[in-house]
From TrEMBL:
Organism: Candidatus Accumulibacter appositus
Annotated signal sequence range: none
Protein name in the entry: CRISPR-associated protein Cas6/Cse3/CasE, subtype I-E
Pfam families, alphabetized: CRISPR_assoc
Membrane-crossing residue ranges in chain numbering: none
InterPro entries, per database record: CRISPR-assoc_prot_Cse3
Lineage: Bacteria, Pseudomonadati, Pseudomonadota, Betaproteobacteria, Candidatus Accumulibacter
Length: 245
C-alpha cells in the first residue's frame, strides 16, 4: 500500500465566514464538518481522510492514496470561495513511507474521539461506558478521576492500535482532554433537508511512542485512521522519529 501526505493551508479569515454562512460550524467552533464539506466538494470521492486540522499557522494534513495530479485537476475546478477557504493554490503532497520494520519505534500524535457503542446502539464516551453500572458511577462521572479517565482512554487507544496486530503503544500520555460538541447531519427533516445535530463527546489528543507490529497492518491503520469521525478531523495518526520533540 502506498499513499501520500497531503498539506493544505486553509485561510482562517475565509474559512470561518464560509462555515458560518453554510451553517457548518459547531457551537464550540469545531471546523470538522466544514472542512469535510469543503474537501468533499473539491475532491469528490477522492476527498482525503483521515485529516487533521492544526490551525491557521500549521494548516491541514491528510493521508491520501489518490494521484496528486488528479487531486490538482479536481482542485482547479473548485469555486473561488471554496478554493480560498481551503487554500487550494498551495496544495502540496509528498510520498509517505510504507516500508516499516516490525518492532520499529516511532513517535506519534493523534486526536481521537474515544467512544463506543452502548447496548442500545448509542454512541457513548468510553469512560462513561466503562464506569456505567458502578455503585458510585454518578460520582465518578461528575468528579472525573483524571487518572482513571486517562487509563480508560489509553486502553481504548491500545485496542485500536492492536487491530490486525498493527502496532502497540510503548508509552503514551494524554496531552489534552475536553468535551466538545461536533456538528453532524442525519435523517431528513420536514423540509427534506438533513437534520443537523450537535453531538457532545470526548475530544482527546494522545502523544507518545509506538512499536510497529505487522507492517502491512500498520499501513492499513495509517490509511484507515483511528476510531470514529475520521472524515471530520479525528483519527489521523501523525508520526515522527522516536525521541523527537
Amino acid at each position: 500500500m502506498s499513499f501520500q501526505l497531503l498539506r493544505l493551508q486553509p485561510d482562517p479569515t475565509v474559512l470561518a465566514p464560509w462555515a458560518t454562512r453554510h451553517r457548518l460550524l459547531s457551537p464550540d467552533g469545531d471546523y470538522g464538518y466544514a472542512l469535510h464539506a469543503l474537501l468533499s466538494e473539491t475532491f469528490g470521492e477522492l476527498a482525503p481522510k483521515p485529516f487533521h486540522y492544526l490551525g491557521g499557522r500549521q494548516g491541514l494534513l491528510a493521508y491520501t492514496s489518490a494521484d496528486l495530479e488528479m487531486l490538482r485537476l479536481n482542485a482547479s475546478l473548485a469555486p473561488p470561495d471554496v478554493a480560498r477557504a481551503l487554500g487550494l493554490d498551495n496544495l502540496d503532497a509528498r510520498a509517505f513511507p510504507s516500508a516499516w520494520q516490525k518492532g520499529q519505534r516511532l513517535g506519534f500524535e493523534v486526536r481521537v474521539r474515544p467512544v463506543v457503542r452502548s447496548k442500545d446502539g448509542r454512541e457513548m464516551d468510553a469512560f462513561l461506558h466503562a464506569v456505567e453500572g458502578a455503585v458510585d458511577a454518578g460520582q465518578i462521572a461528575g468528579n472525573g478521576s483524571s487518572a482513571q479517565r486517562t487509563a480508560i482512554y489509553a486502553d481504548w487507544l491500545a485496542k485500536q492500535f492492536d487491530v490486525d496486530g498493527a502496532a502497540r503503544i510503548a508509552e503514551a500520555h494524554l496531552d489534552s482532554f475536553r468535551l466538545t460538541r461536533v456538528l453532524r447531519k442525519a435523517g431528513s427533516g420536514d423540509n427534506g433537508r438533513r437534520k443537523t445535530t450537535n453531538n457532545a463527546g470526548p475530544d482527546v489528543v494522545f502523544k507518545g511512542q509506538l512499536l510497529v507490529g505487522d507492517p502491512p497492518g500498520f499501513n492499513r491503520l495509517l490509511a484507515r485512521g483511528i476510531g470514529r469521525h475520521r472524515a471530520f478531523g479525528f483519527g489521523m495518526l501523525l508520526l515522527r522519529p522516536a525521541g523527537s520533540c
